[in-house]
Amino acid sequence: MAVDAIPAGRVQLPSQARSQSRRLAVRRFKLTLLLPLIALFLFLLTPVLLLQLYFSVHQWTVYLSSWWDADFVGLDLFQEVLTDPRFGWAVVRSLAFATTSTLGCFVFGFLLAYLMYKPFRGQAVYYIIFILPMLTVPVVVAYTAEMLLYQSGPINDLISRIIGVDFKPAWLTNPHIALATVALLEIWNWTPFSFIILLAGLAAIPKEPIEAAEILGASKWRIFWEVQLPLLRPVILLALVLRFLEAMAEFPKTWALFQGGPGSATETLPVYIFMTTWQYFQISKGAAMSYIVMLMMIVIVLIAIHLLRREKRSLDQMYALRAKDAEG
Amino acid sequence: MATKSRRRLMSSIVRYMILTGWAIIAFFPIYWMVSTSFKPDIQWFAWPPVYFPDPPTLTNYMNVWLGSEQYDTTQYAISSQTPLVSLWNSTVIAFTSTFLAVSFGSVLAYGVSRYRILSEARMFQLLMLRMIPPIVIVAPLSLYYSALGLLDTRIGLIMVYFLTTLPYAVWMTKSFIDEVPREVEQAAEILGASRWRTVFEIVLPLIRSGLVATFLFILILTWSEYLLALIITKTQVSTLPIELSKYQGSTEGRVYGRQAALAVGITIPLMVIGLIIRKHLARGFSFGMVRR
User: Fold this and answer.
1) What is the DSSP string of A89-110?
2) Sign of the four-CA dihedral A86, A90, A92, A96
3) B83-285: which CATH architecture?
4) Where are the alpha helices (H) located in A41-84, listed in sequence order?
5) CB-neighbour burial class of residue A15 (10 A; exposed 0-12, middle 13-18, buried 19+)
6) pTM for the complete prediction?
7) How far apart are CA A103 and CA A107, in angstroms?
8) Where are the domains of chain B?
9) Considering chain B, what is the average pLDDT of its residues?
10) How crowded is the C-beta side of A107, counted as CA atoms within 13 Å?
11) Rounded to 5 degrees, what angle do the CA atoms B174, B178, B181 make?
C-alpha cells in the first residue's frame, strides 16, 4: 500500500527488516501529517456537534440557570420546528433566493465570459473592473446598497432619468420585493465568481475540435451548442453548485440590510435560525432547527459532491492532456 | 468581403457596449461608496442625489479613523471601541488564522498528494466544513467557547477561521503540489534527505508562489467574514466588518459618510490583495478544480 506511493524506495530494499522499519516510518509520518486535522475534529468540531445534539433534545433558554439542568424533552423540539409555518417559509425563501441568485450569476457570468475569452483591446481593464464586486466585503455591499437604494436615492434617480419615467420602487421597504433586492445584490456581488470560473473554463477548451468544426463549415451557433457547451459542462456545473451552496448560507447582506424584515419578507434559513437563537433566546429550538437544516444541507451537499467528483475527474483529465500536449 | 468586415465591426461594437454596460453596473456602487465618504453630511442623503462631493472633505475619514474631530461626536456617537483597535484585531485574526490554515493545509495537502493520507472521498468530505452553512453550529459553538473562556477572544475566532478555511487551503495547495514532478523528491530521497526535509526544503519552496496565492486568497475570506465574528466577538474584540454595523445602530440612523469612510478602509486592502492574485482567484474559489 504505502510503498506504492514512493516508487523510488522500491529500488533499494536489501532486507526484510529494513523494508519493515521503513514501512513503519512511513506510517508514522502519515499519522503525524494527519494529527492536526484529527485534533481539530476532536477538540473543536465533535464537542460542538455533541452540544448541539444535547440542546436539541433538552428544553433550555438562557433565562434558566446551568444548562445541564435542562429537561429532557425527546423529539418535541423537532416536532415544534417542523410544524412551525415560519420555518417552512424560511426554507422556501432560502431555496428561492439561492436558485434565482445562482441562475442570475450564471447567466451574466456566462455572457461576460463568452464575450471575453478571446483576447481583445482593453481585456485586462475589463477583467479588473469585473472582479471588483467580488472583492468587496459583503457587509459593505449591504450598507452601500442602503446608500444607493432608498426611495429617492441615486439608483432610482438614475433609472428615472434614463428611461424618462418616474421609477420609484421601494427596494428596501416593500415586503414584496425585499427578497428580490437581496437576490440582486447577491448577483451583483457574485457574478464575478461565475465569470472567472467560466472564463478559465472557456480559455482551457482545446482549440482542435473548434477548428475542425469551422473547417467543416459549422455555424458559430452550432459550434457553441455542439462543441463548446459540452466541453464546458464540468465548469458550468462547478459554477452552479458552488454558488448555490454559498447562496444557501448567505447571511451578512440579508441580515445587515433587513434583519429579516420588512415583516418577515427576508427571513431566510440563516436569518431565522439567528433570530430564534440570539433574539428570542430559544437556544433549544434554534439547536433543533439547526439540526434539521444541517441534515437537509448534508443531503444537498452529498448530491453536490457526487456531481463535483465526476466533473473533477473530467477536468483533471483535460488538464493532464493539456500538460502532455505542452510537453510534446 | 466588405459586408463581412462590417459585420465584424458591428459585433465588436456590440461587445464593447455590453461589456461597458456591465462595467458601469459593477463599478457604480463602488464609486458611490468612495464618493459618499468624501461628502459633507448634508449631501449624504440629499434630494436630488449628489453625484460628486462638493466640496470634497476629509471630515469623515478624520472622524472615523482618527477620532480627532470633536464637533460631531455627540451627534453621531458611535461605539466605545475605535476602528483602529478593530483594524488591529482584524489584522491579527486574519493573518494568524490564514497562516495556520496555509501551513497546516499545505503539509496535509502534501500528504494527500504523495501518500494518500486522505482518500478522494475523504477529501470531498472535508469540503463539507465549508459547504454546510456555519449558522448551523454557531449557537453550540458559542456555548462551548463560553465554557472554555474563549468567547470574545482573538484565539477563539482564529480557531474557527482556521477550521473553516482549512478545506480551501488543503485543496488549493494540493492543486499546486500535484503540478510538481515527483522526480525532484525522488532525487532528494536518494541523496538522503529526510521526509520532513523533502517537504520543507524541496516541495514547499517549489510552490512558493502558489503558497502566497493561497495565503492571500484565504486572507480575503477571513478579512471579510461576518457571521462568526458577530457571534463570537462581543465587546472586547471586534473585527472591522462588525465595527461597520455599529454605525447602523446609532439613534441618528443614517451616518452614511462615516460608514462609507470606514467601508473604504475595509475594502481597499481586500481589493489590492484580490488584484494581486487575480490570476489565481478562479483556482481558489473552485478549490483548485479549475486552473488557468
Assistant:
1) HHHHHHHHHHHHHHHHHHHHHH
2) positive
3) Orthogonal Bundle (1.10)
4) 46-57, 76-82
5) exposed
6) 0.90
7) 6
8) 2-66, 83-285
9) 86
10) 9
11) 145
CB A220 within 8 A of CB A118: no
Is the Cβ–Cβ distance between A76 and A159 less than 8 Å? no
DSSP code for B203: I
Closest-approach residue (CA) in chain B for A160 = B48
Q: Does the ipTM surpass 0.95?
A: no
Q: Which residues contact A203 (CB under 8 A, 6 or more apart)?
A: A117, B292
The interaxial angle of helices A85-116 and B2-37, nearest 10 deg, is 130
- Is A71 strand, coil or helix? strand
Pick from A96, A72, A264, A107: nearest CA to A178:
A264
Q: Do B22 and A108 touch (CB under 8 A)?
A: yes
Closest CA to A47 of B78, B19, B148, B74: B148
pLDDT in tens, B14-46: 999 999 999 999 999 999 999 999 988 888 877
Is the pLDDT at A106 greater than 90? The verdict is yes
Q: Among the CATH numbers 2.40.30.100, 1.10.1420.10, 1.25.40.10, 1.10.3720.10, which is that of A76-327?
A: 1.10.3720.10
Q: Collapse the DSSP code of A84 into the 3-class scheme (helix H, G, I; strand E, B; otherwise coil) and give the result.
A: coil
Nearest CA among A96, B101, A75, A6 for reference residue B109: B101
The one-letter code for the residue type at A112 is L
Residues of B in contact with A196 (CB under 8 A): 281-282, 285
CB contact under 8 A, A126 and B189: no
Subunit contact B133:A152, Cβ cutoff 8 A: no
Q: Is the pLDDT of residue A3 over 50?
A: no
What does the block give as the cell for A15? 532486507
| φ/ψ of residue A172, rounded to 5 | -100, -15
Residue A208 grid cell:
482542435
> Domain ranges in chain A?
2-72, 76-327
CB contact under 8 A, A297 and B292: no
The predicted pLDDT at position B40 comes to 86
* Helices within chain A (DSSP H only): 2-5, 7-10, 16-40, 46-57, 76-82, 85-116, 123-131, 138-149, 154-163, 178-204, 207-215, 220-223, 229-248, 252-258, 269-278, 283-327
Q: Other CB atoms closer than 10 Å to residue B65's CB: what's the count? A: 16
pLDDT digits (tens, 9 = 90+) for A24-36: 988 888 898 898 8
The long-range contacts involving A115-124, CB below 8 angstroms and separated by at least 24 positions, are A115/B15, A115/B18, A115/B19, A116/A199, A116/B19, A117/A199, A117/A202, A117/A203, A120/B12, A120/B15, A122/B16
Residue B96, pLDDT score: 96
Q: Minimal Cα distance from B267: which residue of A?
A: A136
User: For B194, phi and psi rounded to 5 degrees?
Assistant: -70, 170
The answer to whether residues A84 and A73 touch, using CB atoms and an 8 Å cutoff, is no
